[in-house]
Design brief:
By secondary structure, the protein is α+β, with helices and mostly antiparallel strands. The protein has two domains: 75 residues, Disulphide bond isomerase, DsbC/G, N-terminal (Nuclear Transport Factor 2, Chain: A); 134 residues, Glutaredoxin. 39% of the residues lie in helices and 20% in strands. The protein has nine helices and eleven strands. It has a five-stranded mixed beta sheet with strand order 7-9-8-10-11. A four-stranded antiparallel beta sheet has the order 1-2-3-4, with helices on both faces. The longest helix has 15 residues. The protein is globular. It starts with a helix and ends with a helix. The relative contact order is 0.12.
Length: 237
């Protein structure tokens, strides 16, 4: 992927004769990237704490480009002195923005009876063993004031039995009951309807989800895989 970015940018600069200068570098870098990837895919270009290096946010990815457009870096930018992964912080912001833009009515929600202290959004597959283990601990999370919201992420893709089961859950009259039944191994009535399963799978892929469960906090912090409820609560507090 790095070669694809670098090659495309080099072709753009060579073809247009664009010369990027330190002064107004962000605007010049943004123009060059827009010519390669389309303006709609270049979300932002900002200076980093590293002189001469710019952060470029493409659709779902963070890369770095030098002021003169010669160098492109794909990877983590870490502030060693402050012990901060600046790239992961930016990705977290992007995940939080993407999740906050989703409509909760399209999710399967397990909410606490009282006040909500934290919200976890979980990409899940009803057949995933560790998703089932996490689901068995949702009552413990709810009791501690944590709302759990499920998004569909059928691991086998589309079409697949897992996709069909997710659709049946999302099309059930009582989604929460259907989700609990599916994760307990019970049969779920086969149903179809207009549903968000495909869109949620695609959202997960854009956010870098590779397996289930993937747990995302309100701040965009990600826990890839099963985490015991007690540990999650410690991390949230």
């Amino acid at each position: 992927m790095l070669n694809r970015y670098a090659g495309a940018l080099a072709l753009c600069l060579a073809g247009t004769g664009t010369v990027l200068a330190a002064e107004g570098a962000q605007e010049s870098v943004a123009d060059a990237m827009a010519q390669v990837f389309g303006a709609e895919n270049v979300k932002s270009v900002t200076a980093t704490p590293v002189p001469g290096l710019n952060e470029v946010v493409l659709d779902g990815e963070v890369i770095y480009v030098s002021d003169d457009g010669r160098y492109l870096i794909q990877g983590n930018l870490v502030d060693i002195q402050e012990r901060r992964n600046l790239t992961e912080e930016r990705r977290g912001e992007m995940r939080a923005e993407a999740i906050s833009a989703l409509d909760e009515k399209d999710m399967v929600v397990f909410a606490p009876a009282g006040d909500v202290k934290h919200t976890l959004t979980v990409f899940t597959d009803p057949d995933c063993p560790y998703c089932r283990k996490l689901h068995s601990e949702v009552p413990q999370l709810n009791a501690a004031g944590v709302k759990v919201r499920y998004l569909a992420f059928p691991r086998q893709g589309i079409p697949s039995p897992g996709y069909d089961k997710a659709v049946s859950v999302w099309c059930a009259e009582d989604r929460a009951a259907a989700m609990t039944a599916a994760k307990s191994g019970a049969e779920v009535e086969s149903r179809t309807c207009d549903n968000p399963v495909m869109d949620q799978l695609q959202t997960g892929m854009r956010l870098g989800v590779r397996g289930t469960p993937t747990i995302i906090t309100e701040t965009g912090r990600t826990f890839p895989g099963y985490v015991p409820a007690a540990e999650l609560l410690n991390q949230l507090d």
